[in-house]
Task: structure prediction
Amino acid sequence: IPARVVPMLSHFSYSAQVKLSGRMLFGFLRNYIGTIRQAEELAGAFRPDLVHLNTSVLLPIGKGMKSTGIPIVWHVREVAGMSHVLSKWINGQIQEMASHIVVNSAYVARDYIGGKPVTVVHNALEGSEFSPRSSTQKDTARQELGLPLDASVVGIIGGVQEVKGHFQFVD
Result:
C-alpha cells in the first residue's frame, strides 16, 4: 500500500499526561488555520473514502477533513486533561467531527456518551510474548531485581498517573 507522510504543524497535545502551557497553546493557534487548509488539500488530492485519526490531538486535521464531507473514524486513547472546560471542548469537537469514535477503554468512553457511536477496542497483547514464565525464570528475575521470592509483584508498562488509579492501587 503506498503511503505518504505529511508533517502537520498544529496539534493540541493537552491530556491527563500533558499539562497545558502557553507555548503549546500559541503553537496550536498559530498553525491552526494552515493545518486545516493543508488537510483539506490532502483530502481533495487523494479523495479517501474514510479518514482514520489515531489520537485526540488532531483537531485541526479533523476540521479540515470534516469540511470536505469525508467520514472520520476517530480513535481516542487519551483521557482529556484536568481542565473541565477545555476537556469538554476537545471531546465535543471530536463528537462533532467524527462519524464513529473508537476508544481503548470504558474509562475513555465515558467522555463520549450520548454523542456519536462509540466502540471500545482494548489494546491487544500477543499472548505468547506475555505468557507466564517458568518459576525458574521468575525466581531469576526476582533475584536480579533484589525482590523476595515470595513477594507479590505487579508490573505496569506506561505512564503512572493519578487519573489511572495507580496510586490508589499501591495504597
Notes: The chain has a mean pLDDT of 83.
